[in-house]
Amino acid sequence: MKGKAKVKNGVVLLGLLALLVVAAMALSVSAQDGDKIVIAHRGASGYLPEHTLEAYTMAYALGADYIEPDLVLTNDSEFICLHDIHLYTGFPRKIPCGRLSVQGSDFCRDD
User: Structure pTM?
Assistant: First the structure.
């Protein structure tokens, strides 16, 4: 199973490398023409939640030339789009019931 994961990761990384090469070539050609390039980092994250299909669609609709996601490799060797590589869910440490609030917009502890 680990051999298949390595092959899968290799194919994904090779695809990403090819994408970067094509993007670099397009950037250099466009830079020579004097045109500006619009790169939507995490999609249209100023309008919609970042790394969602809706944010990517809106970025395209607004005229973005490229969409640049934050790719993170998980412990089970899967790539996901996530901005914070140090995401902490609060577990395995238990947070007592009532210490979290869903009233606010930030879902932070009520300390």
Answer: 0.48
